[in-house]
């Protein structure tokens, strides 16, 4: 049996392996670079698409008419609930005076109901009459026009 024939000396084999390694590194680098360019191009297309979508949304918002919140109409009878009894209502051109016999717990909710009806309170008073609490409010309505 003859030993295998070695055509290249040891140093040339080493040099060839070294060159093959760097050639493989170069091919890998080129491949990764091309993949990076494809990802970058996809990202640029995605950004352009998002920009177009945002522009369409802004155009849609600009064309949508603005509508104010709907307020409930004011009626003094709305304040006659459990724990509150309407005593008097004196309307005026600016609003009116509302008097209620109420419990302490019902006082904050009266302000909430007035705000829902776009009615403001210029002044109010709380006084005790016997076992009841008299809650008097001076109301103002906004002037239309």
UniProtKB/TrEMBL annotation:
Keyword Membrane applies: yes
Transmembrane segments: 17-35
Superkingdom field: Bacteria
Protein's UniProt keywords contain Transmembrane helix: yes
InterPro entries: HofO_C
Keywords assigned: Membrane, Transmembrane, Transmembrane helix
Pfam annotation, one family: HofO
Domain DNA utilization protein HofO C-terminal: from-to ranges: 74-142
Record's protein name: PilN family protein
Source organism per UniProt: Shigella flexneri
């Amino acid at each position: 049996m003859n030993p295998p024939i070695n055509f290249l000396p040891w140093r040339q084999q080493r040099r060839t392996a070294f060159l093959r390694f760097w050639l493989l590194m170069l091919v890998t680098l080129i491949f990764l670079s091309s993949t990076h360019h494809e990802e970058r191009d996809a990202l640029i297309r995605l950004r352009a698409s998002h920009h177009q979508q945002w522009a369409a949304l802004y155009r849609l918002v600009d064309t949508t008419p603005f509508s104010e919140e709907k307020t409930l109409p004011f009626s003094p009878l709305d304040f006659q609930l459990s724990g509150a009894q309407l005593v008097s209502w004196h309307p005026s051109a600016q609003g009116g005076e509302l008097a209620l016999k109420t419990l302490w717990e019902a006082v904050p909710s009266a302000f909430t109901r007035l705000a829902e009806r776009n009615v403001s309170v210029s002044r109010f008073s709380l006084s005790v009459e016997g076992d009841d609490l008299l809650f008097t409010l001076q109301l103002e309505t906004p002037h239309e026009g």
